[in-house]
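FORM 7B - TANDEM STRUCTURE REPORT

SECTION 1: FIRST PROTEIN
SEQUENCE AND TOKENS:
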Amino acid sequence: MTYFSGELVNPVIRGFAPDPSLVRVGDWYYLATSSFEWFPTIPIHRSRDLARWEYAGHVDTAAPGGSLAGVPDSGGLWAPSLSWDGARFWVTYAVVRSIGTPYFDLDTYVCTAPDVAGPWTAPRRVPSHGFDPALFHEEGLLWLLNLQNDHRPGGLRFCGTVATELNPATLSPVGATHLLLQHDRLIEGPKLLKRDGWYVLLLAEGGTGFEHGVRVARARTLTGPYEFDVRPLLTSRHDPSWPLQKAGHAELVRTPEGEWFLSHLTARPLPTADGPRCPLGRETAIQAVTWDEDGWPRLRHGDRRPAVRVAVPRGADRERADNGDPLAPGCPAPSESAVVPGRAGPSRHDQDRERTGSEDAVEPDWPVPADCGLAPGRSGPSWYTLRSAADPSWIDVTSRTGWIRLRGRHGPDSLWAQSLLAQRITEHRAEARVTVEAEPSMFTQAAGLLLWYNTAAYFALDLTWAEAAGEEQCGQQWRGTGRTVLALTARDEDETRLVAVVDVDASTPVTLGVTVERGEARFWYADDGTARPAGPPLDFTLLSDDHGSRLRFTGAMAAIHAVDLVDASFTADFAGFRLDCTPD
């Protein structure tokens, strides 16, 4: 009998952390999540007890050519599947380049590494039937699972789960592709394991919204035929009052003691007049699982709905936690920075070095002073960049001690070259602040603080140039007139609205902030040490998966950015960025 001495609190990885893929190697559990258009690509966390998770690295080679420039919002890297063959880690994923069309225009890739912190191999393309691929290893054989997409008029967008054997060395197909099953509901995200002579297939069902769930099918042979369990393993679709919604996209793992647990995505909605919305995006949760007398998996607490609190076995490093580890179950330190510009990762424990023969974490590709807020941390890659990794061509952390200098590039609607650094918002109560020093001289230059969802959904408080008071917009900044202002703008799909304009003195640094209280966001600035409103309250829930007419799959961020639309020479210096997230 396993001794359950700990408890996890769901979600265990909070904020934008969707599509978790879970694997155990020795005493460690590793979990990869989707990154979509964001860098670092495919963040990976690890844990010894399933309750407390720390950032362990990312698949830094995942974006072919190192760039996702031009991919649409919520495109890019979808649903990685992490696995271990006894000697190395494998990850497979799709790069999706079309959203909202019959064609996903995607490519499926595979990378491998001796350790999750790298070095990862360059991506190799494999058969690309559809998104949400997974790998299954069995006695030296390698199988690629995928959904199949029928783009033709009248075709089913999700028309079955397929499997293709791959040569483990060349990754070329071996024989024909096999259709494993089809279903009348939307089925995706296949994950395969073998237990008691059964091939057990976990499937995401019903899309990734409030109808999401997990179904199970099984067969005596890998290629089928598969029979479905009569009921879902996991879903909250039937109870809109449940605190954890959108439960689905799951993977099973077995502990060293023989217990079973399930990783899955979930979301915590806020009520609005237009229905529930989840601005924090889809998050990662863990459930305990047992197997019934007929050999089907069931949630241990006897329900289909996900539990918020789950008992877990005593982990190998629980003694360290009992002695004051600051990383509480389910509650990563909200203000701890953990960006990995380039290829940084945390130091690994001696056990990892003994297993892999590798050294400590890979160093960043460029210097990262610890006092500028860009140093690696434990809670996750809390700084993210859009569609490319941070690099010295647009970010400078060495010229001015304790400051981050951004060189302005494209505007916030661009899919190509934004100078933006963002951190995940992990709770419905949060505050972000930063001090910015810049001297914009044109309306094409701006720098400031944002609440960000994507290029069609954001709020921005920018230090920028405007015409003299009372003068209409005429764009003649070269006359040497005008003023420096804080401009608060709101972007909502096809409309960008100027919410407020405030005159400020840009001869000294200006502190900007935003306070989020559940569904309301209030921007402010500091004047003589006093916080003053920079405009009216804004609806934070507009920055969610559930608002608007387009597909959305990420989550709300707090960000800083710089813009220069003319010659990309304007720079802005930022200091003291802080994001504090407070659980309800």
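SECTION 2: SECOND PROTEIN
SEQUENCE AND TOKENS:
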Amino acid sequence: MIRINQLKLSINHTEKELREAVYKKLRVTPDIIQSITIRKQSIDARKKTEIKYIYAIDVVAKEESKIVKRVKDANVASVTESEYSFTIQGHDSLKERPIVVGSGPAGLFCTYFLAKNGYQPILIERGQAVEERIKTVDQFWLDSCLDTESNVQFGEGGAGTFSDGKLNTMVKDTTGRIRQVLKVLVEHGAPEEILYKNKPHIGTDVLSTVVKNIREDIKACGGTIYFDTKLTDVLIENGVVTEIEVTKRNRSKFIDGVINSDSSIEKIPCSALILALGHSARDTFEMLYRRGLTMEKKAFAVGVRMEHKQELISKNQYGDEYVNLSAADYKVTHQCKNGRGVYSFCMCPGGYVVNASSEEGRLVVNGMSYHDRAGENANSAIIVTVGPEDFNKIPGAVDTPLAGMEFQRYYEGLAYQTGRGKVPVQRFGDLLRNRESVKIGHIKPNIRGNYTLANLRDCLPDYMVETIIEGIQAFDKNIPGFADEDAILSGVEMRTSSPLRIMRDETLESNRKGIYPCGEGAGYAGGIVSAAVDGMKVYEALAVKYHP
């Protein structure tokens, strides 16, 4: 195969023009070419008056080596595609079917590969199937009546179901796992463009369909999925897992703001338990800590969501050509005078801020976009890194591996009080002057869930507020208008990553044998793709030891 790099074309080019550019680059006629595949597409916006698409193109042709030799171009080379390949090596027999806890990307992909290869896994999920989950979340955004088991954090697809569905990752991968994840998503309904776009995303609307299709494929391959089923205990004997306890909920409707349902407790024999927990499974973390799993606290980042007009961001990035391109994103970072870093995270072009709460009396926000990214506002988390040295600054702090989790809970509790159960919102100009907002300016909040005007200093520590302010003012130098006093801030953003790590060895097992911590909640991933990849790694770890 021949790969052409740095092939530049107008943003308004046609497919015919792309093919003709390939023929010209390789100095061949169309009959020599067998296939042309876009490997990567990105935007070169360094010259706002001459924005280009930059392509990497894979070409299958007759006599490829002769073509490459004749062209003599550093951007034209012969390549061999590195496809994902894994061979099952296990010889031991599993006493019971493997059990996966959590249906976010890590759990879903681990279960998918186990099912596809004959292991007949069981997947348990505390929340609802995605169709019902969407209804529950929509209702919560209308009336603020929280279902603590099925919400933006919990349910089929994990927290990523209500997100921008970003698929880019900083992970370097030579095994082909990342591309395999993208291929699986495409096979189940994601747009093919995610295979080549520089910053691919799916969007919450498309992602929910993809998740459902993967679920049906798992079932067709012998897997079993239980929703409304929560892991509540694990039985350990001689350092090895032997059984789990689950609570199954037979739900009925909300009555007077309360979920009326019956629940039953069941015990299931288990010798291989994959813990693909989300970063918000706090009650499960507490149970696992009591059961002796080795954990450590780790740094994460917290802050606020910030909204601007999407037009401001797109015009700054693309100039007048922004009208011909999809909504632009941004990435900004700044090192503050106090030694702390502040940066943007999980930027959602044309998106929405969402109430992402999962515990009563606590409130947290996140960002979400649909596939078309057609919302009026852009939003991003503006966050500050916090570490174990900060966790002891809250009242009643206790030095355990769960300290970061309690740090999150404390400030989410303050956010709930500040907003009186609604998302607290403030103009940036009012945050500067330490006063509660009393009106909205020319930027209107794009929020899913009820919100109220407030002073975010009431739910964030002073060092964080000052760091955020300095960062926003610094970002204004790169994106003029970023520090607009009418820009909308919402609080608090606390679930950027897991506040702890469940330790595992080279076989990916915890100190309690048979238990495999996996994905973002366990501290081994940071986003949809990296979590899915970690799910694949855990599948491989089981397949090295056990046969189907």
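SECTION 3: OBSERVATIONS ON SECOND PROTEIN
Residues 528-545 form the longest helix (18 residues).
The chain is about 30% helix and 25% strand.

SECTION 4: SIGNATURE
Preparer initials: ____
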